[in-house]
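Reopening this one. Same input as before:
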Amino acid sequence: MQDSGAIKADLRDFLSSQRISVMGISSVHPLPGVPEHVDPCGLLRGAKSIICYGLPIPKGIVLADTSDLHLYWRYCNMAYRSLDTTSNRICVILETGDASAVPIYGCFPWRLADNKFWGLLPLVYWAEQAGLGRLVKCGLLAHPSYGTRILLGGVVTTLDLEPTEKRIEDPCPTDCFECIRVCPVGAIDRTGKVDHNSCLRFSSSSPLMSHLVRDPEIKKTFSFETLLNTVAVDDHGSYQCFKCIKACPLALSGPRSPTASNCNQ
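Same output, byte for byte:
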């Protein structure tokens, strides 16, 4: 049996070599409100642990007055590719023993279930379980050092790894509703409920996708999911909006002292 502590040390070393300083681990367990079709055990039989990690979005992109959306789109485009490659490599590292592992890509592919968009697994929920931060009103994860400007990747494995401690404190100010005020489609409710469908349809709209779905022959030949994920191969998401991040005071948080979810712990 592989030693859990040694595996975690190897993971920390590898992620550090990729300049990824944010990592946490969650045990696999039921999550309230998450449907069965995005259950880790449905993705990998015998799944026991989920490893989550992330890259921060530079603070300067959030503060930029001009071309901020172009900078955000391009950064996300490249950062998600880097995170996805890291996920692939971690699976290979973990499978040098008798374990199995599957990558959880940070953005695409998406699936459509009950007219709602879902990734392979909802990484923000699992990252919260793994102690990377807390979910806040806008539906994003807030990391203690980088706030809501963080992008996530992950791996599901059959290895039984010791989980990192889940964070208790809620960093979202109770009297702050800036994300709600600036949302152009009203996707964020004061109770903290987020209409992710409305958000994604607006913020991830693609001119290429719009062209494809207007062609009746293409719509007849290919499913919407196939078109969506094929467009994403070259584009990795056409980001049209990140107003909630720009308005969030947590997004301007600066790095503080190392935390339990940092790789140098």
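So the earlier flakiness isn't reproducible anymore. For the record, The chain has eleven helices and eight strands.
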